[in-house]
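sorry for the late reply, my laptop died twice this morning and i had to redo everyting from scratch. anyway the thing you sent over, i finally got around to it. pasting the sequence first so we're on the same page, its 192 residues, then the predicted structure underneath. double check i copied it right bc i was rushing
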Amino acid sequence: MSYQGQLAAKVKKDAAERLSKHQIITKKIDGLYRQWWCGCPDSGCDWFYIVTWPGYMCYCGDMGDYVFQRVDDMVLFMRRSAMSFDYAAEKCIAHGSPIRKYCYEVFEDLLNDEEKLLEEEYEPEDQQGRRDKIADLRAQINEESHEHEAYMAISDSGLWDGCDFPSCEAFDFHFLWCLHAIDWFTKNVKDA
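ok and here's the structure:
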């Protein structure tokens, strides 16, 4: 399983456990101007607010701050869209924490995928040259390498050109956790 898949499974499990005792307390309802507090009344951990106004939803709390924009009633929208991570990320117009960030494990997945494609995509005479370039990249970049070093090495490798330049980013743990919290909220709120 790819790093992205492992991270998504880890966040799903973590959020389900940590949200299991949460409650929703309505603070304000005035049409689409709404505010809820979500958390455990006996704990200060993992609390968050959901605030909506026409066309917007703001999530703010322990795991970060994110504002989403799309349709008038964002509770209904996020009920259908929060678990579509890429789509939800497109609708995030402001954030206090990163949505995605460079990840060495994604870099490794990229190289592993490229190795798997060698025999399918390339003629035998081209395979060894690409295999050598992949090995050079592995030798240059490790877990301690900075994002800039990784992207420079990828660029210099000649394995990809500008049209198909790969990303080595993964969704941030906090962003995914917040999307799970929003999904939990939208499925459990009674007065939206």
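The radius of gyration is 21 Å.
thats about all i looked at so far, will dig more tmrw
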